[in-house]
What we know:
Layout: H1 2-7, H2 11-143, H3 149-163
Helix pairs in contact: 2-3
Amino acid sequence: MKLFQALGLDIRILIAQLVNFAVLVFVLWKFGYKPVLKFLDERKEKIEKGVEDARRASERLEEMEEREAELVKAAKKEAAMILEKTKKQAEINRQKIVDKAKEEIGQIINQEKDKIKLEKAETLKEIKADIAGLVALSLEKILGEKINGKEDEELIKKIVKNLK
């Protein structure tokens, strides 16, 4: 006690101040520190949840980008296959059209050849008929009289046959 008195301290005031300080600490603990701690804990949980959500979103974004890249790659591959298939089909169709055109041209040429042969045969037939008429007329003039029809016809056939 003498020590406190030597230092100029009153023990009763010191005890009263300690009690006041304890009450103050209790009040601050009860009504200040706990709500602040609770608020800080809640805020910490929200921040951790936000960080976790951001990490998940980032992972999800990376997965989506990988899927997108795979889909684009698959789509390009499929497009290339379709293009190649289309080119092959176009080449097949072109070849079919060319073959069909060649076939039609061949048919037309054959038809025209047949027509020419037929016209040639008809022309030859007409020429032979004309020659027969001319021969008959010439014979009439050479002989001076008309031979009967049967003899005339045989003679004309013989002359026409020799013309070949």
